[in-house]
Amino acid sequence: MPEWPEMEHYRSQLSTLLGGIKISTAVVNREGSINEPPDTFANALANRTILFVERRGKHLLFHLDDGNRLLLHLMLGGWIYYGEQAPMEDSHYQVIIRLADGNSLYFGGLRLGYLHRITAKLAHDQMKQLGPEPFDSRLTLEAFTKRLKSKRGKLKTTLTDQRFIAGIGNCYSDEICFEAKLHPAIAVSELDAEATERLYGAIKKVLLDAKEAGGYMEYPLTAADHLTGGYNSRCLVYDREGETCGVCGNAIKHETLSGRKMFYCPHCQGSE
């Protein structure tokens, strides 16, 4: 599932490509991916202009000139492609937005994900349920420590709770725990001040490194996009079960925690 680095990578590219571009029409191949009848959706988008693209947590919001938003959540398996022609036939994409400049936005893999046309108020109401952004200037070490002290449960489940911090999921929670030298199943109540500071720094380092490397997703946004997916080979523990830890040489372990995959090095990260 795309997380903060992937969605921020998408946002930064799409902001350049889409700002001020008019929509010609929309093609809906799967009605379950949108929140209204296909004809209503297509007619409402025709001749609308995309003002800018915003990201909130794992969501993208396309701001339209009529005050409404297109709210995108890719969930598990979703991706976006932008260009004159997509790599696959149009029928492979659940929603296609045709643009007046001859390009199109192709939304694929939206079996669980969605692209909803909603009002600005509804978008605000939905997004305010999310926790702070990882790089929000107000999320100081002091503020982070205070939020962490209010939580109960395991570290990984806390990091992936979108009400705690928005944008972290399965992959980067494991990478963050490894960077911080903390077992992902440790109880957050056991973290002292020094461990909390390591965790705070690890969140920022891992997410920023991953974003600059293009995240771990394999689908490029455009034909000229050679950066997307660059972080996949740099993951140190996630999806590396049985492989050798690059720090200590021990084998990476895989377990399940609250229904989520959990990858860690038992030597570098100790016990829970």
UniProtKB/TrEMBL annotation:
InterPro entries: FPG_cat, FPG_N, H2TH_FPG, Ribosomal_uS13-like_H2TH, Znf_DNA_glyclase/AP_lyase, Znf_FPG/IleRS. Its EC number is 3.2.2.23, 4.2.99.18. It holds the Pfam family Fapy_DNA_glyco. Its cofactor is Zn(2+). Keywords: DNA damage, DNA repair, DNA-binding, Glycosidase, Hydrolase, Lyase, Metal-binding, Multifunctional enzyme, Zinc, Zinc-finger. Residues 236-270 form the FPG-type domain. The keyword Methyltransferase does not apply. Residues 2-114 form the Formamidopyrimidine-DNA glycosylase catalytic domain. Belongs to the FPG family. This is Formamidopyrimidine-DNA glycosylase. The lineage of its organism: Bacteria, Bacillati, Bacillota, Bacilli, Bacillales.
